Amino acid sequence: MKHKPSYHFRPEQNWINDPNGPIYFEGKYHLFYQYNPSGYQWGNLHWGHAVSGDMVHWSHLEPALYPAKDRGENFCFSGCAYENDGRLEIFYTSVGSYGHGERGHIEGAEQWIAVTEDMKTWKQIDENPILSPEQNRRQGKYLTHWRDPFVFQYGGEILMVISGIVDGWKAAFHIYQSKDYRNWEYKNCFYTECRTTIYECPNVMVFGEKIVFVYTCFQENAQYVVGTLNEDYSLHVTRHGEIIDSGCFCASNVFKDPKGRYIMWGWLREDDRNELITDGPWSGAISLPRVVTLEDGDMVSFSCAEEVKLLRKLTETHQLCGFSGTKKMSCHSMTAEVECFLKTDGDIRIRVLDSEDGTEYTDIWILSRAKTIWIYRERSSVIPEVVKDSLYSRYRGDEQHVSIRAFIDNSVLEVFVNDSTVLSGRVYPVNDRAGISFTVENGTADGCVNLYQMTDS
Fold this sequence. Notes:
Number of strands: 32
Mean pLDDT: 96
Low-confidence stretches: none
Number of domains: 2
Largest sheet: 10 strands, antiparallel
Helix content: under 10%
Strand content: over 45%
CATH architecture of the largest domain: 5 Propeller
CATH class of the largest domain: Mainly Beta
Distance between the termini: 20 Å
Shape: globular
CATH superfamily of the largest domain: Glycosyl hydrolase domain, family 43
């Protein structure tokens, strides 16, 4: 059995989680990520690093950022990357220990900057910490779980948003302003829902005067709100929170590419494997790159980046006219894309990872009248320990026309519908010969279905 993804981003082995600091710089895409170079479980966090010319074919480099243990740092938590006067810098959360204490991640996290001369290794600057709990306390701010800085520009100002719990219970995001990326002034509480939780991984995307603000709650899905920036630097929300992807996607990070698109990456969690080691010492993967757009009415859409088509090898295509029933694809593949452009009044099922004896399969359902996506995982694996709950999301569009891009990558599923909605999931089949079929029930369908074999990234 093979569960390690082939064309989704991840290093050869070991633990990864949050994507960090994605950026386009000097003709290359750079993607950093939380990485444990010594094991397949969380801990010993460095910043892994890879470069690409097209966002889908990656060259893995040595870790970009190692903990400065001689300065009391043992974890390099998440953060961002930005260009400062022609140089690429990393702004991240520095932690000495996991838990309470002077440099613990709960009360003692600091915000550090690292710089590079060769685009391969980054060194923590002597001025660190750039921001410390002591500075917050001097301004009357007592923040815990203070982490994950994200730098952006709005109205010509350099701003930074970071998470932090207020008064020991209220999760919030806080905004700082700077003129030089070194000296930061606390401005206000940027956003809060007055919840008792832990906020993480803030991202800000600017569309004119509008802001799409993305964040993750601890052990929950990434979500977004839309708004504008008030004069006091708080976020005036015009559209309240919506889940980005109700599957396994979380801890997103974004950047603006040379084409002016906002590209989003996220961590595809391994929770549903319940820490089983099924095919080697590895854990975690990064989503396919998603393009984020702001539509009329403050609606946010998520589509798969066109660059992913570079991985395609057309295997077969089927033209449909008044079709109902089931069509089995001749190709058996664990790494494929099923693309559909349909006019239908029925329900669409794409069965993937279907074993020859029928003991394992996963069904992707697109219910056109209800406008819902389902990933049914009840029969996805004969391994009893893995999670097999069904996953669900609503999508936008009319009741008759639907476009689908369903990606299968060993244990990863990502399903994009109408270039607006996406649902991800993890499945862990034992079989290595995986059938694919297409079904229309409760109606008929016109259009086409394309099957692509996907090459490794």
